[in-house]
């Protein structure tokens, strides 16, 4: 029973941390804006492409698109984000 509660707590925490990091359109503009950043690095094999948020957005971010077409926001100042961008550019 204790294990089930612990697993549920971990899942809820992960869902809470990941929810605000998704890119969503800002107003009538279809360019996504980010309102938070992913706290941990994604596995690089899941990332297929990236783009930057619009200058109209309040937070500048890199949006990684996963193999399942999920858009995830990341802080462009983080080392892992820069490494992923370099990797994708070399492909």
From TrEMBL:
The name this protein goes by in its record: C-C motif chemokine
A GO biological-process term: eosinophil chemotaxis
Q: Where is the Chemokine interleukin-8-like domain?
A: 30-88
Keywords (alphabetical) are: Chemotaxis, Cytokine, Disulfide bond, Inflammatory response, Secreted, Signal
Where it mainly occurs, coarsely classed, is: secreted
Q: Where is the signal peptide?
A: 1-23
Family that this chain belongs to: Belongs to the intercrine beta (chemokine CC) family.
Gene Ontology CC annotations of this record:
extracellular space
What species is this protein from?
Phodopus roborovskii
Q: Does the keyword Disulfide bond apply?
A: yes
Alphabetical list of PROSITE patterns matching this protein? SMALL_CYTOKINES_CC
> Gene of origin?
Ccl5
Q: Name one GO molecular function term.
A: chemokine activity
Pfam families per UniProt: IL8 (PF00048)
Asked if the record carries the keyword Secreted, the reply is: yes
Q: Where in the cell is it found?
A: Secreted
């Amino acid at each position: 029973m204790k294990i089930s509660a612990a697993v549920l707590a971990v899942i809820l925490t992960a869902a809470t941390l990941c929810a605000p990091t998704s890119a969503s359109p800002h107003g009538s503009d279809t360019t996504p804006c980010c309102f938070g950043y992913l706290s941990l690095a994604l596995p690089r094999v899941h990332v297929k492409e990236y783009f930057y948020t619009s200058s109209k957005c309040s937070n500048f971010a890199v949006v990684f698109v996963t193999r399942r077409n999920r858009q995830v926001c990341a802080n462009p100042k983080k080392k892992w984000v820069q490494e992923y961008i370099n990797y994708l550019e070399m492909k």
